[in-house]
Design brief:
This protein has about 290 residues and is α+β, with helices and mostly antiparallel strands. The protein is about 65% helix and about 10% strand. The protein has a five-stranded mixed beta sheet.
Length: about 290
Amino acid sequence: LFLSASLLASLLTPQTSTLIPYASTGYWFPVLYGLAFLMFGGPLGRLLSFALFVVSLLLGLIYAVSSARALDGSDVLVLVQLYTSNGLVILLLEGFARLAQLQNEHAVALERAAYSDSLTGLGNRRLLEREIMAELGRVQRYGKPFALVLFDLDHFKAVNDRYGHDAGDAVLREVARALRFYVRQVDVLGRWGGEEFVLLAPELGFAEAESFAERLRQVLEGHDFGFAKVTASFGVSVYGPGDTVGALVKRADEALYQAKALGRNRVSVSLAPGQSRTDDLRRALEPLRTPPPR
């Protein structure tokens, strides 16, 4: 606005010599171009810069037409230099904006590659460990439970041996695709390794987590994998005071092996020392036991 006002003021002042007053003001337009790109980013910054360039072009033409004398070669040269430099600045800023966008996309791609499983598209073990650590921090601040569900495809080696590893990979991808529709937005579903998967389920206690795992078990049991029937065994652990990532995973793993020992295709729950399956009920009744304030 300041530069436009300066140019309009110069239009109202009779000029009888050269276009230097206009050019000296117009050379500040690149500052506005830069601010537009910094404040609004590539697409909008490009649009605003182009609009400012058009405004400066129109003001320059008005200035030239309103001049009291005919333009000579030096005047034309001043205008050509002014608009050429302004155009080059816009192109340069556009290049920097595109480079920044490419760098950002590359960083996002690297992070996705670092934390995702290339076969299934789910989160990998590194992502799961990071999210479990974050959930441990949240439960210590807010006191809400969370569950860890570890499940393993039953007799998966037989699928690889009979149908080949490509078929086994197809099964893993189909398991990931099938279960995505049954987990909540707050849940984190990932591939732990091989044919093992992990589900991190915030704000679920024993009863809810066991029911959730049973639902996923039924989904896999009833899913049509085309060439083979696929089932899974599930182990469930729920956060207990002082738990670490390793302790949670160990209990879920113990529950998983218990499910396999009991015949596979079932859900088993493992308790930490001092934990009880009635902890959820006691936690729900706790507000009712607290006497009302007098």
